[in-house]
């Protein structure tokens, strides 16, 4: 009887030891049973940390730009106010859309009586490409831009066939051309008569009003006493 009781006690002890065996002793690895949700949380945490670092870098870059509140407000607006400075230093503040091209700005600035192709828009001595928008050019509100009239080359031909090349602007008057011709060829202004396409040009009118373009040729004939002209064209 006693041997049977000892055997039963040994069996119970074995059962208890097996029941209390630790997960580590049984080969159980907690890492191997990590749930998918825990893995996703870890990935989200890493991504959030990376975004936070990038945001901090962007914030530092903006601080280094020393942008004012006016600069930030201008960047958010669709319209901007530009100060247009013309050749005579006349200044006008005009509102434009950021998506307008440089050509659009020139056309609105010169008006209907002048040709936009005869002008350039400049910032700090730099000519802006005509096809880009104000946004692409980096133009902000309050920027001062200069509207510059292009020079063009024309020719003045005398009766004897001699030709003189001069540089003019479309807004120049015919009188201004005569004065320039006097300085180059010493022909007194009161003796000059200029013709274009067989029409005599009036002193007070401008080059653009006669549609005189780059490379055009004006004919110069002498005014004789009594108002007669020499030469025939």
In brief, what are we looking at here?
With 233 residues, this protein is an alpha+beta fold. The protein is 33% helix and 22% strand. The protein contains 5 helices and 10 strands.
Q: What does this entry look like structurally?
A:
This is Ubiquitin-like domain-containing protein. Residues 26-46 have a biased composition (Low complexity). Residues 1-46 are annotated as: Disordered. It comes from Chironomus riparius. By secondary structure, the protein is of the alpha+beta class. It folds into 3 domains: 42-75; 77-149, Phosphatidylinositol 3-kinase Catalytic Subunit, Chain A, domain 1 (Ubiquitin-like (UB roll), Roll), CATH 3.10.20.90; 152-222, Phosphatidylinositol 3-kinase Catalytic Subunit, Chain A, domain 1 (Ubiquitin-like (UB roll), Roll). The chain contains 5 helices and 10 strands, in the order H-H-H-E-E-H-E-E-E-E-E-H-E-E-E. Strands 2-1-5-3-4 form a 5-stranded mixed beta sheet. Strands 7-6-10-8-9 form a 5-stranded mixed beta sheet, covered by helices on one side. The longest helix has 30 residues, at 36-65. The protein is rod-shaped, with a radius of gyration of 43 Å.
Offer a few descriptive terms.
alpha+beta, Ubiquitin-like (UB roll), 3 domains, 5-stranded mixed sheet, 22% strand
């Amino acid at each position: 009887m006693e041997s049977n009781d000892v055997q039963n006690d040994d069996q119970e002890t074995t059962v208890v030891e097996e029941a209390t065996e630790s997960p580590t002793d049984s080969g159980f690895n907690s890492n191997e049973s990590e749930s998918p949700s825990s893995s996703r949380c870890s990935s989200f945490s890493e991504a959030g940390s990376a975004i936070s670092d990038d945001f901090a870098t962007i914030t530092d870059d903006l601080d280094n730009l020393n942008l004012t509140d006016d600069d930030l407000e201008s960047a958010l607006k669709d319209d901007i106010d530009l100060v247009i400075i013309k050749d005579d230093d006349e200044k006008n503040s005009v509102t434009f859309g950021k998506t307008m091209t440089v050509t659009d700005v020139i056309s609105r600035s010169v008006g209907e009586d002048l040709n936009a192709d005869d002008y350039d828009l400049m910032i700090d001595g730099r000519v802006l490409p005509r096809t880009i928008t104000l946004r692409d050019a980096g133009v902000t509100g309050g920027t001062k831009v200069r509207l510059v009239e292009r020079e063009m080359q024309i020719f003045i031909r005398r009766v004897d066939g001699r030709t003189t090349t001069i540089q003019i602007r479309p807004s120049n008057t015919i009188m201004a051309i005569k004065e320039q011709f006097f300085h180059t060829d010493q022909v007194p202004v009161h003796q000059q008569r200029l013709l274009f396409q067989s029409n005599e040009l009036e002193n007070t009118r401008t080059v653009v009003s006669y549609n005189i373009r780059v490379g055009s040729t004006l004919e110069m004939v002498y005014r004789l006493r009594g108002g007669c002209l020499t030469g025939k064209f």
